[in-house]
Design a protein that fits this description.
Blueprint lengths: L1 E9 L2 E10 L6 E4 L5 E6 L4 H10 L1 H14 L13 E4 L2 E9 L4 E5 L2 E6 L5 H28 L9 E5 L6 E3 L4 E5 L7 H13 L8 H10 L3 H10 L3
Parallel strand pairs: 2-4, 6-8, 9-11
Antiparallel strand pairs: 1-2, 3-4, 5-6, 7-8, 10-11
Helix pairs in contact: 3-4, 4-6
Length: 236
Amino acid sequence: MKHMVGSLTYGRDTIRYEVCFLESRKTLSIEVHPDSRVLVRAPMGCSPSVIAERVRKRARWISRQLAEFDGYRPRTPARQYISGESHLYLGRQYRLKLLAGDKAGVKCARGQLLVSLPGEPDPERAKAVLHRWYLDRAQVVFGEVLEGCLRRFKSAQRPRLIVRTMQSRWGSLSRAGTMTLNVKLIRAPRPCIEYVITHELCHIQHRDHDAQFYTLLEQMMPDWEQRKRRLETALL
């Protein structure tokens, strides 16, 4: 696998993109990620001029996607992990409350996330304890959702599930059959989690985002585009 970077000017904007060359790939695709990364997946040996021309033709769409994601970003303030702050769990807002207790733990009750800490509660320890709780809940919830989604894929075997922090992706599926999901996804509504898991399960049959992949995704989840938009606009 080989990489390169490129850029082009569209109006007043400069679109920078990363190209990933794959030996197994036969078509060229362009993806715009919520972190403003523009990724081009291309067949090995594809000419940079061909890639640049394809990006130029899609520049209007790319620019629109980047502007849309940029519009959401300021609405998500950096978390301070102090009492009274709002945090998401499965698409719902909860008020954080730090409490002194005998041992560290988190309880979700009556619209609050109650974080207990031995001694005087402080934001850094609250952040670590809450992250651990999110990881534990994600393992349980993602496992349940995976089982439900698998029922639609009658011949698919259950992939090994890993939950961890990911910087720019909601999920991935390795060639060895391991599904990795971003722990941050536990903050999203369950229908969005179902979309990500269904998306990754489709990769068992179709590795690339080609026409066959989207045909299968449409069959398994006809409203996947609405769920995808909901995920992209959630304040995660």
